[in-house]
Structure formats: structure tokens, C-alpha cells
Design goal:
706 residues; alpha+beta; 18 helices; 7-stranded mixed β-sheet; 5-stranded antiparallel β-sheet
Length: 706
């Protein structure tokens, strides 16, 4: 031990004298200074401080891993390269003392980089909108991610420097990083057929997430527990690797004690390494299996008619939830109790009405199949049967047109659903966070409703592609929700307003989506906004521009656009539901949206099937409609000038664009009228590919003159 201290002290002095080793430390400080200053000088923040930190953290960690790994190879091989090691073999120095002394000083260098990072993080996060507990959790998360990765890579650096007695040893470090991170660094939420997502566990830091570990109002809670297992196993594996290096280092110099003790210590360490690795593997394997089971339950196969690519592109439009149902859910009263272990218990009273023109004795409901029905009773004699998510109410007497009945419907169970190869928790009930989107089927929906839309996909690992369904209600529902829960510190919000503590009441045609986490709720005009406290000002600015566009669209096209509530979500959850039809409810990202993005969303929200009827003439109409919305938000150059600067190619004929420009020259109102007419003309065509702008304008002129 004394000799080890001597080696450690000597290497430490040499390290302090090497001015070049201060460069990585300085680079880290300068990079984090740039990240913080560039964030803080912005007048309006569209993302949280933690989000900005973790976006840069991943790239900084990769750079630091490369630097520290190469330094480890240098530390292990520098004495051999300088022939000093030939002299050392004549000393009475044990292998353990010699190697571990150098290994520890290299670990200390990695620790210096870690300390710089967590000091910067700790100081910056003091001004972030998070609790003291979350502050400590974020710091510890970064510490275990960095130290676990450094610990393992330094051990590998020593091992390969001992095995490969040449400059090729330095190439091993970038090779390890590329091999371990090549697949997961290409995350898009879908692993391809050759990319088993379970191999993504083989990384020096826990990278089983998409884009960033940070999830807005839910922070890093989703990744924290599993990262403890992953990095715990990584540290233990690092010990095993350095022990292996000791076994291989100058075998002729091993003492009897070293020969006896090193294998015993290695065996002892391998056991908890396997246990922790197995626990981490089982965590993800369970999520992946549940995701695959969900997709297999819903996935539809190609019927071999037509082209496979055409079927892929049109599948979700064909299977969207737009079939009307004769029954309506007039009232839904829910008494919800959140229990331990992701359990939910619900006692509900439903008022259902037959709005059709014929009597029936069967009514259909939809509820997530993971929830178990405990009671299904009514004043009318009724029995319930179930097939997956679909529930059939069988009545002895016919339900007449216009007739209402009440149903007492009680159920309980566990809700933990996954998306994107099991990386994302789609619906969950946890102590510090909750998310129950409507698409999770956590409360009874009227009719047979697809909660998930999936289709086979032979280029993806699970052999299917899966999305949340578009759930569109035919009629509004009066909701009353009473919530009972132990942890009242976590704020809750539903798509209906809270009238008293944990009691929510309102009418919505969209339905219910519940969130619980670190957010605040305020009104922007008549719209309730639910957002993380740090992005609220940015969210209000974006929603203000949306409001201006919504009002314009409502006056122009006489359609309902403005929602009653807006959720500001992180990217992972925004992308899960942004394609859904959200009447009365809207979701935006924690990011700035330009005028063009708003205009595109406005048009797509009214007619999401536009892509099916696209021809060249109609494309110009859509461009003109986007331009006119953008012009409403901020004054633009003329339509033809905007079109030329945006889309015009050298060979394109501008005849149709110039025809539209003549109407803009006559005045803004004239331009709005002709675009509205052309859009409705296209919408009325049976075959939308037959749209011809010249013919439509001729008809418009004829109607105008008459």
C-alpha cells in the first residue's frame, strides 16, 4: 500500500507539471460557459435550463470519454515506451502497486472533469424551477453517468495498453466508443431489423432514451432508477477489467499473494456485476416485450393488393377514427383513486344516450384491456362481455331512439404502456409523475375505438410500426372527475378545469388527458395553459401567435379552431399525439415555432388528408393559404415574391401563381375569398387529383358576375 501511494503521488506530480492536460479542463469550462450564457441572454426561453444542459451534456460526455480513454492508454504505456519500465522491473514493486497507482491517478483526472461538470450544473440549476430533491437527483444522475463511463473506459484503456504494445492501442478507445454507441446514437425510436435494441444496453453510460434524458415536466425521473442499475454494473465491470489487466501484466513479477488473491477478488466482483446487469436487462426486456405484445395485438398485415409502399403511406389515414356512432356519452362521472405500484381504481357512472333512429339491445364501450372490470350494472337488465379493449353491453330490453340510461361501471388495474421500442413510457402512474393520455384508454369511451394503430413493417426489429390512434368524438360529454391520491404535492391537470381541490368538471368533445408533474397552469386569454414554469413566458408568446392565427381562420373559413386547453410537452410526448385530431385540446413542444410552422399546422388540422389529394395545382393553393396566414401574423412580401424566394425553380411555369397574384393585387379580402372558394371547390371533388385551378377560377368568376 505504501508503494502504491508512492506511485500515486509521483504520477500526480507529473500530471500537475503537464500543462497540456489542463486543456481539456479549460475546454469544458469554456463550453459550459458558452451554453449557459447563450441560454441566459435570450429574452424569452422556450426550453428549460435542464433541457439545454442535457442537450449539450451528451456531446460533452462523448468528447470527454475520448480524451480520458486516450489518456488512460498513455498512462499505462508511457513507461514502456520510454524504456523506464525496464528499470522498474529491478525494483521490489508489486504489479498491483504499480498498475493501480497509475490507474487511480487516471481516475482522479476523470473525476476532475466530472467535478467541473457537476459544479457548473449545480450552480446553474439553482436558478431552475425545481425542488431541492430534484436538484440533488439531477446532480447525482450526472455524477453516476460520467463516473461510471470514465471508470469503465479507463480500465479498458489500461487493459488494451497492456495487451497491445504499440500505437495501435490508442485506436481501441475510439473503436469502443463507435461500436458501443453506433446503434443507440442513431435513435429515432425505431430499431431496424439488423439492430436489436437490447444491444443498446452495451454502452459505457446509460443511453436508453431518445434524444435527451430530460422530459420537461417530468425531469429525469423516467431514466434515474434504471441508470443506477446500469452504471452500478458499469463500475463493477470496470473493476473486473482492471483486475484482468493485472492478471495479464508481467506475469513473471507476480507475487504468490497476488497470484492467489486476484482471481478470488475477480470472482467476488463478477457475481454482483452479473446480478446488476441482469436486473437492468430485465427492466428493459420487460418493457420491450410489452411493446411488442401491444403491436402484435393491433398490427394488420398487408393484404397483397396494390403496392406495399402505397399501403404503408396511406395506412394511418385509412384507419383513423372517423366513423360516426349512434350512441353518445352524455355524462361521465369518475371517482379515481391512485394506488401503489402503478395501480388505478375507478368507480364511474356513465349516462349514455341513443341518438340513432333505431332500437338496439347492444351498446359498445372501449377500455384499455389491462384494466379489469369489477362491476357493470344498470337499472336496465344488462350483462357485459369483453374482447381485448372492446366491451359489449347486452340488454334484455331494446334501447329506443332518444332513450338515455345510466351505467355503474367499476374497474381497476395497472397502467404502464410503452412506445418506440420500449424507450418511452406512453402512460404511467408514478409517485412523482403521472400521464394518462386519452389514447391510453384509461376511462370508458363510447363505441368500438382503436386505441392503437399498427401495421406490419418488415424493416423494423419488432416487425411492425405503431402509433397512437386518432380518437375523435361525435358529441361532447359533461365530465366530473374526483381524484384521491396520497401524494398531493405533485400538481395535476386535466383537459377540463379544476373547480375545487382534486375535483374537475367541464364539457369537452375531445375527452380527458391527465398529467401530473412539475408544471404551472395559467390562462392565456380564454385558453388554459399547462407548462413547465421555466417555459411559461415562451409558451405564452407562442400561444399568442397561435391565437391570432386561430381567430383569423375562424373568421375566414368559419371553422372552430381555438382549443380550451393547451399542454406544453417534451418532444417524445408531443410526437406521440401531434398527428391526432385534437378538437378542444392542443399540444405544443417546448420550442419556438415560426410563422410557417403555425400556418402549416393550421391547414393540416382542418384537412389532415390533404396529402391524399395533392396535385401541382392544389399545391399552389395550399402554399397561398399558408402565405395568407403568415401574412396575418407578420406582414409578408407579395405572394408571388414569397413563392419565388421559397419554391420557384428555374424551369417552373409561374402562370398559375401569377393568376392568383392578380387577386391579391385587387385587395386582401378578394384574395381571401378566392382562396376560400378554391379550397372548398377542391374539397367537394370526388377525385381530388382532378382539381384544375383554371377551371375553378372560371367558375368563381362566373359565380361572382352572377
Amino acid at each position: 500500500m505504501i508503494l502504491m501511494k508512492s506511485v500515486f503521488r509521483n504520477e500526480g506530480l507529473l500530471l500537475l507539471r503537464n500543462k497540456f492536460l489542463a486543456i481539456p479542463l479549460l475546454v469544458n469550462i469554456l463550453c459550459w460557459g458558452y451554453v449557459i450564457i447563450s441560454y441566459e441572454i435570450k429574452p424569452i426561453h422556450y426550453e428549460e435550463r435542464a433541457a439545454a444542459f442535457y442537450q449539450s451534456f451528451i456531446w460533452m460526455l462523448l468528447l470527454n470519454l475520448l480524451i480520458v480513454g486516450l489518456f488512460a492508454v498513455y498512462m499505462a504505456s508511457k513507461d514502456r515506451d520510454s524504456d523506464f519500465e525496464q528499470l522498474v522491473v529491478t525494483y521490489e514493486v508489486k504489479n498491483v502497486d504499480w498498475v493501480i497507482g497509475k490507474w487511480l491517478i487516471t481516475q482522479l483526472y476523470g473525476l476532475c472533469i466530472t467535478v467541473i461538470t457537476i459544479i457548473v450544473q449545480a450552480i446553474w440549476f439553482v436558478s431552475a424551477a425545481m425542488t431541492v430533491g430534484d436538484w440533488f437527483k439531477n446532480i447525482f444522475y450526472v455524477f453516476i453517468q460520467m463516473e461510471g463511463a470514465f471508470f469503465l473506459l479507463i480500465s479498458f484503456g489500461f487493459l488494451f495498453a497492456i495487451l497491445i504494445k504499440s500505437m495501435l492501442a490508442y485506436l481501441v478507445i475510439p473503436a469502443i466508443l463507435v461500436l458501443s454507441l453506433m446503434f443507440p446514437f442513431d435513435y429515432v425510436g425505431q430499431a431496424y431489423i439488423w439492430d436489436n435494441p437490447k444491444f443498446h444496453l452495451l454502452t459505457p453510460f446509460d443511453y436508453m432514451f431518445i434524444g435527451s434524458p430530460y422530459e420537461g415536466i417530468w425531469g429525469i425521473h423516467h431514466v434515474f432508477k434504471r441508470s443506477l442499475f446500469h452504471q452500478g454494473a458499469t463500475v463493477l465491470l470496470g473493476i473486473v477489467v482492471i483486475i484482468l489487466a493485472l492478471i495479464l501484466f508481467r506475469r513473471n513479477r507476480k507475487s504468490y499473494k497476488e497470484k492467489k488473491m486476484i482471481p478470488i477478488i475477480a470472482t467476488i466482483i463478477i457475481i454482483p456485476t452479473i446480478v446488476l446487469s441482469g436486473m437492468r436487462f430485465m427492466q428493459y426486456d420487460q418493457a420491450l416485450k410489452q411493446y411488442i405484445a401491444t403491436g402484435q395485438q393491433y398490427a394488420k398485415s398487408f393484404d397483397r393488393e396494390g403496392e406495399y409502399d402505397e399501403w404503408m403511406n396511406s395506412y394511418y389515414e385509412v384507419h383513423k377514427d372517423d366513423q360516426p356512432y349512434d350512441f353518445s356519452m352524455e355524462k361521465t362521472n369518475l371517482n379515481v383513486k391512485f394506488q401503489a405500484d402503478d395501480q388505478i381504481k375507478v368507480d364511474s357512472t356513465l349516462t349514455i344516450k341513443n341518438k340513432g333512429n333505431k332500437a338496439v339491445n347492444e351498446v359498445f364501450l372501449t377500455l384499455y384491456h389491462g384494466l379489469e372490470i369489477k362491476e357493470c350494472t344498470s337499472e336496465k337488465s344488462v350483462s357485459c362481455s369483453r374482447e381485448n379493449d372492446f366491451i359489449t353491453l347486452h340488454f334484455d330490453q331494446m334501447i329506443q331512439p332518444g332513450e338515455e340510461f345510466d351505467l355503474d361501471f367499476h374497474y381497476d388495474g395497472k397502467i404502464l404502456q410503452y412506445r418506440d421500442d420500449g424507450y418511452i413510457e406512453q402512460a404511467f402512474i408514478k409517485n412523482q409523475r403521472m400521464y394518462l393520455p386519452k389514447e391510453a384508454g384509461w376511462y370508458p369511451l363510447i363505441g368500438k375505438r382503436p386505441l392503437v394503430i399498427a401495421r406490419e413493417h418488415n424493416n423494423l426489429y419488432p416487425q411492425f410500426e405503431l402509433r397512437n390512434a386518432r380518437l375523435v368524438e361525435d358529441f361532447p360529454t359533461d365530465f366530473t372527475v374526483n381524484i384521491m391520491r396520497e401524494n398531493k404535492k405533485v400538481p395535476l391537470a386535466l383537459t377540463i378545469p379544476e373547480i375545487s381541490e382534486d375535483v374537475y368538471q367541464g364539457t369537452s368533445q375531445y375527452g380527458l388527458s391527465l398529467v401530473g408533474g412539475n408544471f404551472m397552469e395559467e390562462k392565456v386569454g380564454n385558453i388554459r395553459v399547462v407548462a413547465h414554469p421555466e417555459v411559461f413566458n415562451g409558451a405564452k408568446e407562442v400561444i399568442g401567435r397561435y391565437q391570432k392565427a386561430w381567430s383569423f381562420m375562424e373568421d375566414w373559413l368559419e371553422v372552430s379552431m381555438s382549443p380550451s386547453v393547451v399542454y406544453v410537452m417534451s418532444d417524445n410526448y408531443y410526437y406521440q399525439i401531434h398527428d391526432s385530431v385534437n378538437h378542444d385540446f392542443f399540444v405544443i413542444r417546448s420550442a419556438s415555432v415560426d410563422d410557417w410552422g403555425i400556418a402549416y399546422e393550421m391547414i393540416n388540422e382542418i384537412y389532415p388528408e390533404i396529402s391524399e389529394g395533392y396535385n401541382e395545382d392544389f399545391r399552389i393553393i395550399v402554399d397561398a393559404m399558408e402565405w395568407i396566414i403568415m401574412n396575418q401574423l407578420h406582414e409578408q412580401v407579395s405572394f408571388v415574391e414569397w413563392y419565388k424566394s421559397t419554391w420557384w425553380g428555374a424551369e417552373e411555369d409561374l402562370t398559375l401563381v401569377n393568376m392568383l397574384q392578380t387577386y391579391e393585387d385587387k385587395g386582401h379580402d378578394q384574395f381571401k375569398d378566392v382562396l376560400k372558394y378554391l379550397f372548398n371547390y377542391w374539397n367537394g371533388l370526388e377525385n381530388k387529383q382532378d382539381f384544375n385551378m383554371k377551371d375553378a377560377l372560371n367558375e368563381y368568376e362566373g359565380e361572382s358576375k352572377s
